[in-house]
Amino acid sequence: MAHFSNGTQGALYEERVCYKCKHYPEDDINDCCPVWMAHLMNIPCEVYEVGLILDDLIPMKNGKPQQCRMFAPVGDGIPEGFEKMIYKQHTPKVGVGVAIIRGAKVLLGLRKGSHGAGEWSLPGGHVDIGEDPVDTCVREVREETGIKIDPPSPIGWTNDVMIDDGLHYITLFFQTAVPNHVEAELLEEDSAEEWRWFGKSDLPENIFMPTKKKIRSFMW
Predict the structure, then answer these.
(1) Closest by CA position to 212, among listed 145, 127, 120, 136
(2) Does the pTM exceed 0.70?
(3) For the residues of 162-190, what is the DSSP string, one character each?
(4) Angle subtended at Cα 103 by Cα 124 and Cα 154, rounded to the nearest 5 degrees
(5) CB 219 within 8 A of CB 155
(6) What Å distances lie between residue 193 and 5, 45, 111, 190, CA to CA?
(7) 184-211 confidence digits (pLDDT tens)
(8) Longest Cα pair distance anywhere in the chain, in angstroms?
(9) N or C: where does the chain have the smaller number of CB atoms within 10 Å of the terminal CB?
(10) How do residues 136-163 score in pLDDT, each as one tens digit?
(11) d(CA 26, CA 148)
């Protein structure tokens, strides 16, 4: 098993300047770097999840792994911005976004009171422990908008590292359709300013990053 530049074990990358990094395991070379362990803690170590983390930690150039983004020389601190990722959030959070299609329009809410405030996003929220993401969609949409939806279909996911907010999210996207007479209620005024239906031609400019990555791929 090779090591990353910060001491992390991983078969995908060559051994680099492990011993120069403050995160290098001093007691046992077979121990994983604590930065890596923080990212993996409390989530299943499935291939796709590990791959997402590697994509964020180890940048690639011309098909070759570069120095780990968390590399910090002995005696120095963690690179600016990344200390938020370590001390505020130890593992990525998993959320859902639900594209509710009514005719040729999609429902977006103007975020309030958290990261992304002032930006438009799909209804959704965090997946609770032990909860199926499909059930999360149905629950969150009902809690936020009062709309009762059928179990939605998965349409993809995004991996979003928000360094300024100290957050890392994996967002699972789903889609469902509702009749033309359905309207959204503003049921959680602390998290949204309003709900509005948008067509492809009149989408707002200020769209929340995860939603913005996927919105053009919705089937509407």
Answers:
(1) 120
(2) no
(3) EGGGTEEEEEEEEEEE--TT-------TT
(4) 40
(5) yes
(6) 45, 38, 6, 8
(7) 999 999 999 999 999 999 999 999 999 9
(8) 65
(9) N
(10) 999 999 999 999 999 999 999 998 888 7
(11) 54
Query: Given the structure tokens 């590990």, which residue do they identify?
Result: 50
Q: Is the dihedral of CA 34, 40, 45, 49 positive or negative?
A: negative
Cβ contact 74:5 at 8 Å? no
Hey, how many other C-beta atoms are within 10 angstroms of the C-beta on 76? 10
The answer to whether domain 93-217 has CATH 3.40.640.10 is no
Start and end residues for every CATH 3.90.79.10 domain found in the chain = 93-217
**Amino acid identity at 179:** P
Copy the structure tokens of residue 46: 């499935």
